[in-house]
Design a protein that fits this description.
Blueprint: E1 2-7, H1 14-23, E2 28-30, H2 31-39, H3 46-52, E3 57-58, E4 61-62, H4 64-71, H5 75-99, E5 105-109, E6 124-129, H6 132-140, H7 147-156, H8 160-166, E7 169-172, H9 177-192
Parallel strand pairs: 1-5, 1-6, 2-5, 6-7
Antiparallel strand pairs: 3-4
Helix pairs in contact: 2-5
């Protein structure tokens, strides 16, 4: 099995690219989706998060806006949250690998792959990338996004140029979806051959 890590800064189109891998039959572990499950209604981290960060949860689980306000820009609080969340996500990832142990290729969709050292747990890395103006327009179009929030998120992420320099593959998303899909097909073909899916 080859484990491909997929990453990219906010607004680069990573979710779209991950969906393209899924559509081609590649099992995808979505770290963000795992976090949502763990923090959602009846999620197993909800009570622990409430204990660490009072008034950040409710009947539907973690209030991500309230939790974000509690930790964004506060390294000590962020580290407390990560110490709780990262091991739980790692358990989910191991379970995923067990479920797909016979797949020739699996994809780990991890936004902070380099920042958390996750690149050491994958065989190859693909970075999704677009120019800064495209990224900015996409992110600021999101509901509830502000310039300050965008800046705080970017400050936590490795610069796009550095990610591209460290990647085995770069998948551009400032082009047509067909062009991006062809790049995805090329990555799959390079790793396991064009007819291995």
């Amino acid at each position: 099995m080859i484990v491909l890590g997929l990453t990219g800064s906010i607004g680069m189109g990573k979710s779209t690219v991950a969906a393209m891998f899924t559509a081609r039959g590649i099992p995808v572990f979505d770290a963000d989706a795992a976090v949502h499950r763990l923090q959602g209604k009846d999620g197993r981290l909800v009570s622990e998060i409430e204990a660490l960060f009072p008034d950040t949860t409710g009947p539907q689980g973690v209030n991500r806006t309230a939790l974000g306000e509690a930790v964004l820009g506060d390294d000590a609080q962020l580290k407390r949250l990560e110490a709780l969340v990262h091991p739980a996500v790692a358990e989910e990832r191991e379970a995923f690998l067990g479920q797909h142990e016979h797949a020739p290729l699996v994809l780990f969709d991890i936004p902070l792959l380099f920042e958390t050292g996750g690149n050491t747990r994958v065989d190859k890395v693909a970075v999704v990338s677009a120019p800064p103006d495209v990224q900015r327009a996409r992110v600021l179009a999101r509901p509830g996004m502000t310039e300050a929030r965008f800046a705080a998120i970017l400050a936590r992420q490795m610069p796009d140029a550095e990610k591209r320099a460290r990647a085995d593959f770069v998948i551009a998303t400032d082009c047509s979806l067909d062009d991006t899909a062809r790049a995805v097909d090329a990555v799959i073909a390079c790793l396991i051959g064009p007819d291995s899916r």
